[in-house]
Write a structure and sequence with these properties.
By secondary structure, the protein is of the alpha/beta class. A seven-stranded parallel β-sheet has the order 4-3-2-1-5-6-7, with helices on both faces. Helix 6 runs antiparallel to helix 15 and helix 15 runs antiparallel to helix 16. The longest helix is centred in the last third of the chain and has 20 residues. It starts with 5 loop residues before the first strand and ends with a helix. Bound molecules: manganese (III) ion.
Length: about 400
């Protein structure tokens, strides 16, 4: 049993993971308190959440949303702040026990680092943090005696399968992927897919960025890198399995040949709830998994020809240095440009390839190198956009 109330800081409380985290806090007010909530620019929802959950501090990143947020919360006794530095400060407040990092993309990196330096337990939903800076983050976790508990459903599954096991006996991780909405399309069909086709994920209801990444399989590439750092294994020890039913959230294979899997309905409330309450489990009110409804669970190999971004992720992590950071920067530009109808679905990997080839490679990296690489990568990706 959890005895004391856990104070949670949610970075990105208005997004998909953020709102579902608040659902769980709302169900278990005796266990958790939303101590700090932050958002990028959705001040309306942030204000609503603040009035309901009465956090100590509310932070908005976008300065143009600061005045309306303050006005909306003028009758509340809540500290209201603005900007990235304040988000990092909120995550590091002494009373905060756990930080849920649920912001989108590269923006999650610096506040996560600050939270680690403050010794907070990180419930990691922002996989880009580990994609961009896995080695640096891993070093900081040791130095500041902090921990990461994965929120990503696959990594939560692996984490759950490893409870009570010896890391030295792990042979392989079987990382499952739904395959997204375009799993069955051939190359010709992929040329014609639209933004709304890509946003229509068959199993999971998620934010736009991760939904597009799922359709392109970039998401699975990022998750492979995330798994490499979280579970300290080689990319060659991670096998991607397409599993269209999204019931087996991932598996681990031990050196005696035994495989453990974690199964459940595709609902992010489960991995979020486990991260908040670990090592305990909280009762859930969602409909239990009915395996007879499925009858058959299927698995197949991914196709790197139709989904080249997945292969680029293996290439980036094998080469290391700043290449995963370049991959991420290019992909952020690609996804934003696809969502704006500036480029087609199959142009996303072209833009990423160009950026990976053109951005200067640095093998031994510091955090400053990564900050510069991100800017440079975005610049070079934008060059490609101008010429296409
Ligand atoms: Mn996932």
């Amino acid at each position: 049993m959890i005895k004391d109330k856990k104070n949670i800081a949610i970075l990105g409380s208005t997004g998909s993971i953020g709102t579902q985290t608040l659902d769980i806090i709302d169900r278990f007010p005796e266990l958790f308190r939303a101590a700090v909530i932050t958002a990028n620019h959705n001040w309306q929802l942030l204000a609503k959440q603040a009035i309901k959950f009465k956090p100590k501090m509310v932070v908005i990143a976008d300065s143009s949303a600061y005045a309306p947020l303050k006005e909306a919360l003028k009758n509340e006794e809540i500290e209201i702040a603005c900007g990235d530095a304040e988000i990092a400060r909120g995550a590091s407040l002494p009373e905060v026990d756990m930080v849920v990092t649920a912001m989108v993309g590269y923006s999650g990196l610096l506040p996560t680092i600050e939270a680690i330096k403050a010794g907070k337990t990180i419930a990691l939903a922002n996989k880009e943090t580990l994609v961009v800076a896995g080695e640096i983050i891993t070093g900081l976790l040791k130095k500041y005696n902090s921990d990461i508990i994965p929120v990503d459903s696959e990594h939560s599954a692996i984490f759950q399968c490893l409870v009570g096991e010896k890391r030295s006996e792990l042979r392989k991780i079987l990382l499952t992927a739904s395959g997204g909405p375009f799993r069955k399309l051939n190359k010709k069909d992929l040329e014609k897919v639209t933004v709304s086709d890509a946003l229509n994920h068959p199993n999971w209801n998620m934010g736009a960025k991760v939904t597009i990444d799922s359709a392109s399989m970039m998401n699975k590439g990022f998750e492979m890198i995330e798994a490499k750092w979280l579970f300290n294994c080689k990319p060659s020890e991670i096998e991607i399995l397409i599993h269209p039913e999204s019931i087996v959230h991932s598996m681990v294979e031990f050196h005696d040949g035994s495989i453990k899997a974690q199964l459940g309905v595709p609902d992010m409330h489960l991995p979020i709830s486990y991260a908040l309450s670990y090592p305990d489990r909280l009762p859930s009110d969602s409909i239990p998994l009915n395996l007879t409804k499925y009858g058959t669970l299927t698995f197949e190999k991914p196709d790197l020809e139709r989904f080249p971004l997945l292969g680029y992720a293996f290439e980036a992590i094998e080469k290391g240095g700043n290449l995963p950071c370049i991959l991420n920067a290019a992909n952020e530009v690609a996804v934003a440009s696809f969502l704006n109808n500036q480029i087609s679905f199959i142009e996303m990997p072209e833009l990423v390839r160009y950026t990976m080839d053109k951005t200067p490679f640095v093998k031994n990296i510091t955090l400053q190198d990564l900050i510069e690489t991100n800017l440079e990568g975005v610049k070079i990706a934008n060059e490609w956009l101008k010429t296409h």
